[in-house]
Amino acid sequence: MKLTKQSPKEMFNNNQARFDCVISGQDETTVNQFEITWQVNGEIQTTREQRSSGGIKTSTMRLSVHDSLSNVSCSASKDDVTVSQDLTIPKIDGNEPKVTVHILPVEDIAANPSEVTMVCLVFSSVQQDYYIAWAENSAQNNPIYQDGIDFPPQKSDKGYFVSSIYTTNKTNWQSQMFSCNVWPAGAKKAMLPRAVSNSMNNSIECKK
């Protein structure tokens, strides 16, 4: 049995959190006989989507993103057998996370003839979900957002780090500004982006 939550990107695009509860087994008939139930903040939910195929039964719960959402659990029962899993939803602690953008040393950038790689680090005292998007030519009023390569949260002595890596070509790096844009889950708006360019030594906070 597995309980999963959709990616932060999907959550921000749809303003919904989607959870999938999946049970599987070799005997398709037995798997289909399991009844899946959901609880949200301890209350049983009846609205859900279910589908079965090839020994896999999936139940999907869609919830609006709001501050009171704290715990989601699913249970699968058949006769006297019950298995369950739950997910705790990270909450915003009132403090904005710290966002920084880093580039390689000049000599390492010069050693690669075609590409430049940037890293966006998001640090917070508590574990949270973030949607991170990169923008090239971010000095424009309507920049085009791109996905980087995101990594799961990593725990440190003082909190949690989430990182995203973005690679561009040398031509764009010489002429454009790049920004890391962070949307904390549950927040009503994005944080001010952090920008970096070939002419900067360090990342700066953009103004809106």
Automatic annotation (TrEMBL):
Write down the PROSITE patterns for this protein, in alphabetical order. IG_LIKE (PS50835)
Gene3D superfamilies annotated for this entry? Immunoglobulins
**Xref: SUPFAM superfamilies:** Immunoglobulin (SSF48726)
Ig-like domain boundaries: 1-84, 97-197
Q: Which domain of life is it from?
A: Eukaryota
Name of the molecule in the record: Ig gamma-2B chain C region
